[in-house]
Amino acid sequence: MPANNHIKHANGRRAQSASSSPNPPKPPPKKPRRLKRKAGQPSAHSKLNDELQQRICNVVASGQSRERAASLNGINRSTIRDWLLKAQADPNGRYAKFAAALELADDQAIAIMVDRLLKDPDQKWTWKVLKNKRPEEFNERLHIKSELSGPDGSPIPVDMGARFTVVVNCPECEAAVSDAETPDKMRAAAGSNGQ
User: Fold this and answer.
1) Three-class SS of residue 161?
2) How many domains is the chain partitioned into structurally?
3) DSSP string, 22-71
């Protein structure tokens, strides 16, 4: 049986009920709702506030990465990078305060790890974390940059068909070389060996 939302008149026609009128009354217009800002929030649309900043900094100070701190607090890691870029753009703004707090938390984590490194008999894992967190400070490789050039800084001429001799001048090394290892004696020994 069809739904009874129409009323039949005596002449057999249907009349529309009041609930299905062609122009229902409109609700009053809504006022634009302002988002309420939390303490330390730079704008109503930003996720950053004092509580979130403290939670992120606590995770970083415990030794975790910034990316891990973001994921543990339910935000995307690119959000923290965006906030740090905004801090560079406005050094006196709210994001700059966040960047300073994050840097302080990072320094606290490094200090804890260095302290652990000095006290712990098994230092291998702490050292690896430090090398990954701050490679410019805790890299054990010695970076030496050297440059070879010809006379007066010109390029070294290379004749691929001829033999050549490399002479290394090292004042510290010359004092350690004995008389038996002078270049003339070395050439003579090399010549007597069939070269």
Assistant:
1) coil
2) 1
3) SSPPPPPPPPPPPPPPPTT-SSTT----HHHHHHHHHHHHTT--HHHHHH
Secondary structure element (H or E) that encloses residue 86, with its range = helix 77-89
pTM: 0.50
Residue type, 31: K
Digit-coded pLDDT (tens) for 178-194:
444 555 655 665 555 54
pLDDT digits (tens, 9 = 90+) for 39-86: 666 666 678 888 999 999 999 998 888 899 999 999 988 889 999 998
In a domain, 8, yes or no: no
- Give domain status of residue 59, yes or no: yes
Q: How far apart are CA 109 and CA 138, in angstroms?
A: 14
Which CATH number fits the domain that encloses residue 127?
A: 1.10.10
Domain extent, residue 113, equals: 50-138
Cα dist. 106→3, 77, 125, 146, 174 in Å?
69, 16, 18, 34, 47
Whether 40 is covered by a domain: the verdict is: no
Q: Rounded to an integer, what distance in angstroms lies between the CA atom of residue 188 and that of residue 195? A: 10
